Amino acid sequence: MQALLLAACLGLGGFCLALTRRLRKLNDLETGLGGAIAIMAAEVDRLERAIRQARDEATAASQGLAEEIETARRERAIWDLRQRIGAAAAEAPRTEGRRLRKRAGVADG
User: Fold this and answer.
1) Is 95 helix (H, G, I), strand (E, B) or coil?
2) How far does the chain reach from its first CA to its final CA, in angstroms?
């Protein structure tokens, strides 16, 4: 019975050694899963920085575009106002000549 127990213990010891070696290989930062995890973590950080930078650039471009649109609206409103003033001035009857005639008539009377 003791021989069987000794053989089982030796077998378990060998199995533990094999598992230890496999675990070390798996956690190796160069070739194992640990390395893959480290690379993925670095890539996630890089992508987060790129997303943040793209978001900041998009926000700045959006603000610039909003300012350009507002400027264009103001310029359009000024242009419309000038057109209306010009049209109103062209349509307004000339009253200067009539006033001169009336004044001349008042002076005669």
Assistant:
1) coil
2) 152
DSSP alpha helix (H) spans, the chain: 2-27, 33-91, 96-108
Q: Write the CA distances from 92 to 73, 87, 100, integer angstroms.
A: 28, 9, 17
Contact yes or no for 23/30 (Cβ under 8 A):
no
Tell me the C-alpha distance between 63 and 71, whole Å. Answer: 12
- pLDDT score of 108: 53
CA distance 87 to 105: 32
**pLDDT tens by residue, 19-67:** 999 888 877 777 777 778 888 999 999 999 999 999 999 999 999 999 9
